[in-house]
Amino acid sequence: MNRKTRITGTLFIGTTAFSAFLIIAVIIILLVVIVIGGKDTFSWKFLTSFPQDGMMKGGIFPAIYGTALLVLIMSVAAVPFGTITAIYLTEYASEKSILAQTIRFAVRTLATVPSIIFGLFGLGFFIKFVGGEMDSVFLGGQLKWGQPNILWASLTMALLTLPVVIVSVEEAIRAVPREMREASLALGATKWETIRRIVIPGSRSGIMTGTILAISRGAGEVAPILFTGAAYYLASLPTSLSDQFMNLGYHIYIMATQSANVDQTLPIQFATTLVLLMLTFMLNLTAVIIRSRLRRKAK
Amino acid sequence: MDNPVANKGFVFTKESLQKKFRLSEFLSEKIITGVAFLSITIIILIFFFVFRETLPIFSSKKDTTKVETVQKQEQYRGEDPKGPTNASGQEQYGVTTKDTMMIENQAKVEDTVVHEADEATMKNLIGKEWFPVSDRPRYGLIPLLVGTLKITLLAILFAAPIAILAALFSASFAPYWLREIIKPAIELLAGFPSVVIGFFALMVMASFFQNIFGYDTRLNAFVGGVAMALAAIPIIYTITEDALTAVPRSYTEASLALGASRWQTALFVTLPAATPGIFAAILLGIGRIFGETMIALMATGNAAMISVNPFESVRTLAATIGAEMAEVVFGDTHYSVLFLIGSLLFIFTFGLNALAEFYVKGRLVKRFQGK
Fold first, then answer.
1. CATH superfamily to which B12-371 belongs
2. Which of A257, A270, B91, B239 is least buried, going by the fewest C-beta atoms within 10 A?
3. What is the CATH number of the domain that holds A201?
4. Residues paired with B166 in a beta bridge
5. Tens digit of pLDDT for each residue in A194-210?
6. Residue A8 covered by a domain
7. Is B233 in contact with A17 (Cβ distance < 8 A)?
8. For chain A, what is the domain count?
9. CA distances from B240 to A12, B228, B354, B357 (A)
10. Residue B301 forms beta bridges with which residues?
11. Which residues of B touch A13 (CB under 8 A)?
12. Is the ipTM value over 0.90, yes or no?
């Protein structure tokens, strides 16, 4: 090989390596900046106290509580439906059938729909259509469900995270060895019994990964809840499904762009971002670890 | 139990071999199939309900559906910035101050809003001005479209080369241990909430780039583009990496056996073979950037103006919905126009996804199986 080719090769490999390290470097810088900016304000008290002085001081407890409640209701809705869809795709549908392919296409489409569209849908469908109808039918036109609240926000978020659950569970179900299903069927169990006793327990870790990833996604997304239930500031915690709620991501957005004195609240903003980042980071890390174990088992 | 094997004297008849009807089996299968339809249902419902809220725009003039379709078609033609340049608003209303959030301006104007000439006619929608909250509201979508296209172009120009080269590195050159670090790290970046990336761009990147380039507007398309590239890189990287590793071993082995070096194999054999996958990766990356809301809201400055300068503020379609929807009156024209923008976004990303899906599937199967 001549010298010119070798130099070109080294340059080319160097460029690819540089690109990879550039991405890693940006990730590290982002993490370091957020950690340094937020670590002084971050404390146990910050996590457990209410905002004070018009959000200029104090903690972010209501935002954490609201986010937790949001992802809880969201998971209750998204995980069962996602799991059942995954079971259908792997156990019942034949790979080539048009129906299965259409469902797959729908799931992938759902995964690529911009999150703001889910917000619009939540507003148009859940709040105006479902909520509005509920009000006029049950409450005689009194406004209760036809306005933004935590239930509609959670359900909107559930639609967004549904594909996340489906994809993870499907992968886990496929990793359940064929022999186990066949053994179960050979022993006389029916298809549904096999799914209930063999397939679902066997893919429990996948369902868990899916749930964790969905929670992480749901905790971080802001666009879908901008106008379906998130509130700027609430003096009390949400107690019913028809209450509005505070949210970590929304808190960051509002504080960074619309608060009265952005510079003064900067430490709070950084600390809130740190909390959100740590939360999603931990959740994703857990999911990655469980998943890599699962993949090793499958091999 | 009616297990035929356990029963020694059992004779297999046609009836005994037939599937027995069991209610629980039947029900479970039906319920599971029904639930699986949910994803399709949701897509259809999104289509229906997002479009439904835009209807008042089209019916405000004449109630016939024919007018509606004609208007829609014209609407799409209007997407082209070079298309019919219909100057709807001649006089300049207000001053587009740089570096101030439009939202704040609106809050001030809001009290004095008069909804008189509040009509989103064709002329109004393809206008060059976006002043939805003013005495004479103008819903010109052109500046929003230009802004969105500009930022998408910028972001994809940053994201695509870096992500593809990084994928090539981890698929072809990196030693195993390094790949095991790079891949999960970039997957973790995919998990960063966009509001965090937006915050980072707003607080850190904007000032950093301002020091380097010395531009006037602190928040602009460039900052937003770089931040959105961060959101798109993991998508492009992951799909490209998958496409590269899916290239059959025989390809690379043949190339190496013929005397090509590793980088030549990677550049001239693996990369071209994975083109359909990379194409899909870029399409999905564009889709992500196009619909990204939080980063656009926080890092682009949000001033609706038409310019090609990357260091000017832009207002994207998605950010417009995010910023204004919370403040509009349910059911008025502004509300419907925001839903119209949502419909445009939805159609566009749906199209991109469909294109990525079908193009790639067709091409990859053809290429690797020789069909």
1. MetI-like (1.10.3720.10)
2. B91
3. 1.10.3720.10
4. none
5. 999 999 998 988 899 99
6. no
7. no
8. 1
9. 18, 18, 18, 14
10. B314
11. 169, 173, 262-263
12. yes
